[in-house]
Write a sequence for this structure.
């Protein structure tokens, strides 16, 4: 496991960070996004989707639980499990998502599915600070997510 921290001082900076992150995605990545409502999790997902050029613009998935956005190369799954318990998530189709090697899974409020998904994942914890400041704490669990964490931390420091 590796750890890191990056900051964002605006919505635009969060979108730009997500766009940089998206250029490193190849398919098969899993990202857990945690933090309070309004911390920037969905903004980060929007930035990834825009950069990948998928059809549609992600919104909070809280009421639909799962949304899929596609382009010719990827399928971006945006999962929001804010109101669910672990026993309530079995029919969301995780097996199919995991079988798709070009799937990118972004899970907000991921705790109900944490034990169902593979170990290699990047966890991002968005922490609200004063004004528009956000601290984003990163933890990686596996080779793929280690490389993503290192890239994010190196890119933001430039």
């Amino acid at each position: 496991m590796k750890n890191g921290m990056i900051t964002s001082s605006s919505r635009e900076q969060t979108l730009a960070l997500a766009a940089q992150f998206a250029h490193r995605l190849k398919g098969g990545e899993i990202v857990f996004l945690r933090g309070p409502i309004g911390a920037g999790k969905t903004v980060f997902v929007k930035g990834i989707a825009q950069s990948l050029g998928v059809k549609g613009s992600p919104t909070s998935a809280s009421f639909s639980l799962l949304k899929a956005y596609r382009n010719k190369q990827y399928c971006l799954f945006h999962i929001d499990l804010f109101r669910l318990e672990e026993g309530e998530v079995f029919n969301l189709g995780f097996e199919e998502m995991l079988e798709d090697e070009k799937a990118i899974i972004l899970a907000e409020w991921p705790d109900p599915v944490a034990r169902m998904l593979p170990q290699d994942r990047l966890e991002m914890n968005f922490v609200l600070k004063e004004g528009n400041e956000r601290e984003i704490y990163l933890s990686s669990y596996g080779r793929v997510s280690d490389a993503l964490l290192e890239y994010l931390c190196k890119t933001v420091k430039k």
